[in-house]
Design brief:
The chain contains 16 helices and 24 strands. The protein has 488 residues and is of the alpha/beta class. The protein has three domains: 91 residues, MurE/MurF, N-terminal domain (Udp-n-acetylmuramoylalanyl-d-glutamate--2,6- Diaminopimelate Ligase, Chain: A, domain 1, 3-Layer(aba) Sandwich), CATH 3.40.1390; 228 residues, UDP-N-acetylmuramoyl-L-alanine:D-glutamate ligase, CATH 3.40.1190; 149 residues, Protein-Tyrosine Phosphatase, Chain A (Alpha-Beta Complex), CATH 3.90.190.20. The structure holds ligand UAG and adenosine-5'-triphosphate (ATP). Adenosine-5'-triphosphate binds next to helix 4, helix 10 and helix 12. The site of ligand UAG has 19 residues, from helix 6. Its main location: cytoplasm.
């Protein structure tokens, strides 16, 4: 027989005290089945209350909504729960419906670095022998895997994932908290031991409208979600870091500052960059720890410090955490070391496909490179044209040798796209075929040089017209090295 729960067991009370046995939860009327609770939520395009009739026709036993929704719905022959914030009530109900979560969980928010930090936290736990996952933009990864449609899944999906993971023996989980997810209370009901803050810059103003609203949404993690015994782990090198730490301390939460800042508890004392990573000196409780990170980019040391802080904040012994940091690997296609030439020159693949990202990636690479930086890049067709010359200018400003090639031309004339890029980097070499451009880029590498293949990152296809041809920058880097240096 299908499982069912009383409304009270889901933390809900219906108008007039009406009872109902609930057999499942749905936020979309099309997902409702016999005996389900349908959450009729206020949306950006419509109010979910408009779909109550469909939900009832499909057998909904209860409707959860707000006052506006209740007014729209009128009288219904179902239990009606009217909540001030129905998204919050839904998340609470989802937590109770699924009823199980991994025992040790942390979440990280910020504009950049969430995926990296969550992945690092999961990798540290796994190296320490725990069954761990991370949940975010790259899905559910680690000792148990599943797809995740959002960076921070809807509460019903999230709590289903957490319960299934717990049943599969997962004890530790690191999750990304997107600003949308926090604003829509998707993480309510998740029992966090620690929460992290990476940084804050402008993004997502289409949704949040103002910078303040975007910041406030992110702060929900510290102002609301982290329980009184939780630890706030904050990157103090970001301009907003001190404010986040202050807000957490005001709530009486334990805070741990991380970063280069002299006030950091987990402090990065020094860094020395080399061709494939960096040597980092960390200080924790008066003791220094020398750590090798096989990761490129100064910000990665901050991401690692934040991940280590979260894992320590959630109860792991610090010394053991520092010992496993040399094993960390970055997110696929993000400054990924794809291959190394026989002469030692390194080849990186990065997802950078905007002018800003191209500039950031090349700048991050610079301190690691004794010689010249070579870049191979293009720009997508049927997408923002204005970025093409800007990408060309960014490459010309920050790389020593540029190859302009194709990157998903789609329905556009690839030569015309390249011409728009080349207008801003006239010294670049134009090579239409991406595989050949990579080969030429690799061939240009002398000892001490590095190549950045930008644009595709983890993608595995080249879109030409409406066809997707298999293409993998990481694979092509190895193919080029093998062709030029012989298989090593
Ligand atoms: C912008 C945004 O976050 N939208 C979320 C919002 O949708 P909405 O307000 O547009 O909904 P709507 O279309 O007005 O419909 C209102 C309600 O009616 C329901 N409905 C609609 C049609 C129907 O036939 N029946 C029905 O019941 C909808 O499920 C919804 O609950 O509420 C829906 C239900 O809770 C969410 O699924 C939806 O997420 C959409 C899918 C989405 O794409 N969100 C993205 C932007 C997002 O959350 N991204 C972040 C990462 C951002 C980043 O860092 O890059 C993430 O965490 O993934
Ligand atoms: N701490 C950081 N500071 C600044 N930039 C960063 C930082 N960490 C990562 N980045 C940059 O942001 C890009 C995205 O990194 P990551 O996927 O970890 O972030 P995210 O917050 O999860 O973003 P998304 O949700 O878009 O995946 C990286 O390729 C890198 O260039």
């Amino acid at each position: 027989m299908a499982r069912s729960k009383a409304l009270a067991d889901l933390g809900l009370t219906a108008r007039g005290g009406r009872e109902a046995r609930i057999c499942g939860l749905a936020v979309d009327s099309r997902d409702v089945r016999e005996g389900f609770l349908f959450a009729a939520l206020p949306g950006q395009h419509a109010h979910g209350a408009r779909f109550v009739e469909t939900a009832l026709a499909q057998g909904a036993a209860a409707i959860l909504t707000d006052a506006k929704g209740a007014a729209l719905i009128g009288a219904v022959d179902a239990a009606l729960i009217v909540a001030e914030d129905p998204r919050q009530s839904l998340a609470g109900a989802a937590a109770l419906w699924f009823g199980a979560q991994p025992g040790t969980m942390v979440a990280v928010t910020g504009t950049n670095g969430k995926t990296s930090v969550a992945t690092f936290a999961r990798q540290i736990w796994m190296r320490l022998g725990h069954a761990a996952i991370n949940i975010g933009t790259t899905g559910v990864e680690g000792a148990w895997t599943a797809p995740s449609p959002h960076t921070t899944p809807e509460p019903i999906t999230l709590h289903r994932i957490l319960a299934e993971a717990a049943q599969a023996g997962i004890t530790h989980a690191a999750m990304e908290a997107s600003s949308h997810g926090l604003d829509q209370r998707r993480l309510d009901g998740v029992h966090l031991k620690a929460a992290g803050f990476t940084n804050f810059t402008q993004d997502h103003l289409d949704y949040h409208r103002t910078f303040e609203a975007y910041y406030d949404a992110k702060m929900g993690l510290f102002d609301r979600l982290l329980p009184p015994d939780g630890v706030a782990v904050v990157n103090l090198d970001d301009a907003h870091g001190p404010d986040v730490a202050r807000r957490a301390a005001q709530r009486g939460l334990a805070t741990m500052g991380v970063g280069l800042s002299a006030r950091a508890d987990l402090r990065i004392l020094a860094r020395r960059f080399d061709a494939t990573g960096q040597e980092v000196r960390l200080e924790w409780k008066g003791a220094a720890h020398q750590v090798r990170l096989n990761l490129v980019g100064g910000f990665q040391a901050q991401n690692v410090a934040l991940a280590a802080g979260l894992v320590i904040g959630a109860g792991a012994p610090a010394r053991a955490v520092f010992e496993v940091l040399p094993d960390l690997v970055g997110v696929r296609g993000r400054m990924q070391l794809a291959a190394t030439r026989r002469n030692g020159a390194a080849i990186y693949v990065d997802y950078a496909h905007t002018p800003d990202a191209v500039a950031t990636a090349l700048q991050a690479l610079r301190p690691h490179v004794m010689g010249r930086i070579v870049v191979v890049f293009g720009a997508g067709g049927d997408r923002d044209r204005t970025k093409r010359p800007l990408m060309g200018a960014a490459a010309a400003a920050h790389a020593d040798i540029c190859f302009v090639t194709d990157d998903n031309p789609r329905s556009e004339d690839p030569a015309a796209i390249r011409a728009e890029i080349l207008a801003a980097c006239p010294d670049a070499t134009e090579v239409a075929d991406r595989a050949e451009a990579i080969l030429r880029g690799v061939d240009a590498l002398g000892p001490g040089d590095a190549l950045l293949i930008a644009g595709k990152g983890h993608e595995t296809g080249q879109v030409i017209g409406s066809d997707v041809f298999p293409f993998d920058d990481v694979e092509q880097a190895s193919v080029a090295v093998a062709a030029l240096d012989g298989v090593i």
